[in-house]
Amino acid sequence: MGGEGQAARGRAAGGSGGAAGLFGSAGWRPVQLPGGGDFEGGEFEGEGGVVFIEELEDVSLLGGPGAAPPRATDVAAAKPSAKRPKVSEEDPDSQPRKKKKKKKKKTLSAPGKPLPAETPLPGEAGGGTSAEDLERSEWAKLGLCLPIVNELHNQGFVTPTRVQSEGIPAALVQGESLIGASETGSGKTLAFGLPMIEALLLDRSAPAGGAGPQGLVLAPTRELALQVCQELKRFAKPLGVRVVAVVGGMSQEKQRRQLSQSPDVIVGTPGRLWEMIEARDGIPSVNLQFLVVDEADRMVEYGHFAELTLIFDRVREESGEDLRTFVFSATLTLPPDFHQKFKNSAKKKRPKIQSVQGLLGQVPFTQKPKVVDLTTERKTASGLLEAVVPCASSDLLEATLYYILASSEGRTLVFCNAISSIRRLQSLLRLLGLPVCALHAQQQQRQRLKSLDSFKQGKSSIMLATDVAARGIDIRGVRCVIQFHVPEKPDTYIHRSGRTARAGNDGISILLVGPKDSSKYHALCKKLKRESLLPEFPIDASLVPQAMKRVKKASAIDDILRTRKKKNVERAWMEKNAEAAGIALDDAQAHESSDEEISHRDSLKCKKLQDELNKMLADPLQKVFDRRFVTSGANSKEAMQRLKSLHQSRSRHGETAGGPFVVGREGREAVQTMRTAQQRGLQKRRRDE
Length: 689
What we know:
689 residues, alpha/beta, Rossmann fold, 24 helices
């Protein structure tokens, strides 16, 4: 307040020229303090920093929370009056001293790329990295201007990934379009985001009022669109480039307000975007510099065909020849004759979007795009371990899932093919005492965001999800992915597995194969071009019966609760409709009495089962030995000490001395369990040889 007040006072003392230069035709009206205080007499100088107060109307702020990004022309006009003239301390009435000419600072941009006046310099950004150090960084060698390089270093991005190293230089070329394919978690968002931010940063000549966005990013799911928007904001906001998200399930009025501030980049899903583009609701035009299609192949699967075609047609009509189009995905496969098709596309009718090939035929490329394909034959991350667990029955499938979740540490993501399976598993796992949340398409957007936030913050270490979470979602620390159902397509398997082992880290993907999925599993391995079937994840067969007992108890409780809930819903529905129709239900009292008796019996049965389950859950899911026969498998010194300490602890709590007790072991991540099993298998093969 004090600094702004001093600047305002300096402008007032020098006339209205500074104000007019900064805010155009906006009027400035001095406001008198209640009580007739004297602003110029110095009465309030130093009192809380208040020096001058003015009332402004219809003025856009140049900075501060929620303010529109400053334009280069505005800041340049504001500079002469933005600083209070320096006055001699000995003679306050003397004229301001003439400033000495200072040496020009080194231009912090790549050669031939002048920066706008408001771009923060490395020293001003607080990063502490010198311009010389930034110029020598790997990011600067890609051709990025130094303010962006500075932001990257400030946020811990020191070395670009392979897709960024090969994609960014191509995307920085004026008028160049790009098709990029790389493994999951390789940094594709920055590969298309940084060149777009730089181009918008360096080109501030477009008028702000009434102009449409300069960049449009299309994503298949709401969660991915919000994530991409947040990632771009990390680098765009400090540099004055505005990015907003437009997705379904959220307040349309709020999105209108955000769009009214003329954002530079819009990230959204095709449905809501087309709705607002068609109505000219906050998006007056789509005369774009950049069009990005993220997870292009997933767009086809979700069936956004109509919206995509309409958006592409509108962009093609309203954008000029300088449009640059970026298409990215982890499983994008170009047809062998793609370049020949592109060459002849002007002579042929554009294909319908029924496949990735059709999508690429519809995307408005203004010229032949450059292709950066870094996918390997496996198409999965190099640090990913893959495993399978065959299950002979559906009960064993649930018991195996519980066994892995209960005996392993680390954040785990479980994928299911059906929402009904997610609801059942969520209920079972909660009854079994595991911290679990769910994410699927039938949830309200607020619930979906809440579940994601809970999983990211560690409140729930297990998340059950449909393929809504399979594409692009970047959640740090996911150590294990379990695919409860065999996916229908190999691309789905790759993207599910890609939620772990991201950014050079390791992780494991475990596929559970039920009795009816054996043929589907073999077909999947064949489509993935695996030389053999996936290795089996090590399961301790002695613990599976314990897990099965617990799951069956929880299942019995769940069946009672579901039946009771279903009856209550049906009864409420009948009463509501009978009341609306003016019909009296027959034998209502008799039914009510009978229902109460059944409900009471079910409650007692449910309580008994819950007590039995709680007793089981009181002990960890570990091997059980009889303390009277501690011989094979537990004869090491460490095991004997643990047996003795556990026995003493049990005795202190007054428990029976002659019964069996649990030998506890520290929890391990599934990745470590798999690696240990692989090492043991390798040692055994060497001994056999």
